[in-house]
């Protein structure tokens, strides 16, 4: 499978409409426990693209099942597991799966792009965390100084 078949990493930010996801869900449910691998994959993919965390979690679970049971789909699963964890805010897990894919295909443009998105989010969230921590520390310092000043009077 060529890189052009995988969506660009920007696809990690897009979701299906509820009606589109419902079509995939109905097909998956209609096929039951013996659903074809492509049907299961499509449903997992649709769930991962969702904006709802519970749906993303189910999609990641189904994608893990495919990853464990179907060696021929591992490459695709690595990519979508990385997207799923990225969308759920689990950047360390996202990084694990994207790095596994890049170890197999160092030149995969979509994987490199997704790794960049993950790194940007980690950096941004890290800076936000530092700012919040710094603000909290400053607030504690101000309160402590006010208490100390009041006691010294």
Give an overview in words:
With 153 residues, the chain is an all-alpha fold. It has one domain: Tetratricopeptide repeat domain (Serine Threonine Protein Phosphatase 5, Tetratricopeptide repeat), CATH 1.25.40. The protein has six helices and no strands. The longest helix has 44 residues. The radius of gyration is 21 Å and the shape is extended. This is Mitochondrial fission 1 protein. It holds the Pfam family Fis1_TPR_C.
Question: Secondary-structure blueprint of this entry?
Answer:
Blueprint: H1 18-31, H2 37-48, H3 53-69, H4 74-87, H5 91-104, H6 109-152
Helix pairs in contact: 1-2, 2-3, 3-4, 4-5, 5-6
How would you briefly describe this protein structure?
By secondary structure, the chain is mostly helical. The protein has six helices and no strands.
Number of domains: 1
Structural class: mainly alpha
- What is the count of helical runs? 6
Q: If you consult CATH, what is the topology?
A: Serine Threonine Protein Phosphatase 5, Tetratricopeptide repeat
> What is the average of the pLDDT values?
83
Transmembrane segments: 127-148
Organism: Coemansia brasiliensis
TPR repeats: 75-108
Protein name: Mitochondrial fission 1 protein
Features:
mainly alpha, 153 residues, transmembrane, Serine Threonine Protein Phosphatase 5, Tetratricopeptide repeat, Mitochondrial fission 1 protein, mitochondrion
């Amino acid at each position: 499978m060529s890189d052009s078949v995988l969506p660009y990493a920007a696809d990690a930010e897009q979701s299906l409409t509820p009606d589109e996801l419902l079509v995939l869900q109905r097909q998956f449910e209609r096929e039951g426990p013996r659903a074809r691998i492509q049907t299961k994959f499509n449903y997992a993919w649709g769930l991962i693209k969702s904006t709802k965390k519970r749906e993303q979690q189910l999609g990641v679970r189904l994608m893990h099942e495919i990853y464990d049971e179907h060696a021929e789909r591992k490459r695709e699963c690595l990519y979508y597991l990385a997207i799923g964890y990225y969308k759920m805010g689990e950047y360390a897990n996202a990084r694990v799966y994207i790095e596994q894919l890049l170890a197999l295909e160092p030149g995969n443009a979509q994987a490199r792009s997704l790794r960049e998105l993950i790194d940007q989010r980690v950096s941004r969230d890290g800076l936000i965390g530092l700012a919040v921590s710094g603000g909290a520390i400053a607030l504690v310092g101000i309160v402590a100084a006010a208490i100390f000043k009041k006691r010294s009077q």
